[in-house]
């Protein structure tokens, strides 16, 4: 799997790629990440990549030519691979489909993509019309650039790759996973067993069942908590699970 990322700020990616449980996947190229700066493909001493919008108005717009040349360089680099695979060009944009688990799972099973991070007011529409295959949004808000969205997609996809999480299969117990019937995760606790928020306050214990060692009771408790939290915060996910026949009689009790 390979992701080529077109960004005016490649330096934003280095700390992320070197941190946390996913770092080995990037270091070993299990998830290969290549960073491309359109500025390296821009003209003139100033290597200009943006210009004022036609029609006036605030801000700047990313110019077509550096992006076209950058994309051509990526395509050439990919074509030289032993086993080249076609890569869709994905633009991060508020226009796109909001990223959800089912889409992340599909990306995680795929060969990768060319990810385009917008900046300023966005990208000249003619480049989008000519070269972009899909658009992805992180949600109904505006970021300063597509880099955080690219990092979100990369991270979500990488943690689903085999062997990336220390505890294989633990992602199946995460929120939205079909193995959890698309529900939200249950609450988690660790030591100390009793936590005293302040000297004059009573200690707050861990739920007793979690200390019982009774596996079936713990599983039932976790499922009930998952159902409770989902009903409280995302009731439509309960409806979806019910409609898909994923809720048992015990769940409904
Ligand atoms: N003028 C644009 C608008 O109102 O939709 C916003 C441009 S934003 C300041 C600059 C870049 O950030 C966009 O081109 C896009 O790549 C990225 N971006 C902003 N919000 C995003 C979101 N919700 N999801 C994904 N990318 C986003």
UniProtKB/TrEMBL annotation:
SUPFAM superfamilies: alpha/beta knot. It is an enzyme of class 2 (transferase). It is found in: Cytoplasm. It comes from the Bacteria. GO terms for biological process: methylation. Its EC number is 2.1.1.228. Gene3D superfamilies: 3.40.1280.10, tRNA(m1g37)methyltransferase, domain 2. It holds the Pfam family tRNA_m1G_MT. It catalyses: guanosine(37) in tRNA + S-adenosyl-L-methionine = N(1)-methylguanosine(37) in tRNA + S-adenosyl-L-homocysteine + H(+). The keyword Methyltransferase applies. Residues 1-239 form the tRNA methyltransferase TRMD/TRM10-type domain. GO terms for molecular function: tRNA (guanine(37)-N1)-methyltransferase activity. Keywords: Cytoplasm, Methyltransferase, S-adenosyl-L-methionine, Transferase, tRNA processing. S-adenosyl-L-methionine binds at residues 118, 138-143. NCBIfam families: PRK00026.1, trmD. Specifically methylates guanosine-37 in various tRNAs. Belongs to the RNA methyltransferase TrmD family. Homodimer. This is tRNA (guanine-N(1)-)-methyltransferase. It comes from Curvibacter cyanobacteriorum.
